[in-house]
Amino acid sequence: MRTTKPQLSDFGLLYFRRDSVAESGQHGDLGTSLCIVATIVNFPQIEQAYGHTFASAMCHLVHERARALSEHCSATVAVSRERMLFVFDKSGSLGQERGGYERRGAKDLNCVLTSLSSSPITSGDTVAFPVIEASVATLDDKPFNIVDAGSSRMIYGQPGTEWRAQYIADTKTALRIFQAMADGRIDFDYEHVRDASGAQLTAYREALLCEISDRTSEHRRIGVDVHSLERIGLVRRLDQWVVESIVAKLRAAPDDKLGCNISAQSATLDAWWALTIGALADEPDVASRLTLEITETSPLDDFERAREFVRTLRELGCSVALDDLGSGYSSMRNLTELGVNIAKVGRSFVAAGRADSLDAKRLSQLVGFAKAFAPSVVIEGVETEIDARLALASGATHLQGYFYARNGTS
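Structure for EAL domain-containing protein, as requested:
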């Protein structure tokens, strides 16, 4: 682990300054320009769900958003169906401090993402969200190919009416969640992750995503709805909001320690993380009090990039947990090779061990295995005193669940 504060320039996977390759020419002063390629990665999915006409109309409307952004920022934009190239002139505004260029680049990346994907595309009764990915591109004196520079990842649909019906239902869920975000009706409930030593110490509080009813003000946990956003490629936007919200809460409460869930789809260093990585690098006190829990309700798309993600966040001072060990798409390889420092055992193992001594033994074996690769092992779903005794007997270092909140110890 590092003992010095990481610099943003260390994280070249996110952004970098282009080399100056020409004194003049059609691209201008390349050394003072920032080039960003944005890609609508769900174009094939939209085409499969709603047809070529609507997909093309969505592209046209996203292009209009791109042109409006370029006018607002005095940038240049070129479009080619699902890809857009932005050229931002940075001359005279790079700043003198180390990392100034990269920080401005992070803001521009975030601006491109949010401007192009912040609202759905609507045509009659048909609604869809464009899923945008963006990255810094390099221009030199060679011919530029926007296809090669853009994202190579594309999200595809499936044939048949069943997939289409699920896609439409998932889009309706996304509309509800993002509208609730816009209305200020997305918040958090909290569960304390308690030290198993019996000292009633809290390692951190896990923030659990909730939707607030506009009629009754009741909090309803919406973790299950996140699966809909994962299926249609929109979970990155939600995860960005969640992490930024938790970071803001940590700034406001210097003694607090908080954790939050992110999808396995978000465990990759890219444009969606640019601003957050910069903030955590600048604020090590905040980073040291943040725990990111990677949920595995969808598979890791790229294991090596996920491992780099974990390494970078831990270098910044954050803790990283692997959530729901033994459930969903989790695998022992993720535990043994990602380099997380917290493993969380899903509630189903406690429920099974409560009724069967063989399952209780399996729980102890799983905890013992997890402790060989992560110094902290949390048992989730502790609801009764019997659960608490079972979890303690398994050898877990921390316990979490309704039992402690109900008994006033959290």
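The chain has two domains: 34-156, 181-407.
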